[in-house]
Amino acid sequence: FTAEDVSSQNQVKASVQRKIRQSIADE
Question: Where is the Pre-PUA domain (predicted)?
Fold first, then answer.
């Protein structure tokens, strides 16, 4: 992996976690 690939993956994981937390909070 290149540094850019890792950073982009981290951003995706962060955004997914945010959506999951929001969906849980909505329930």
Answer: 3-26
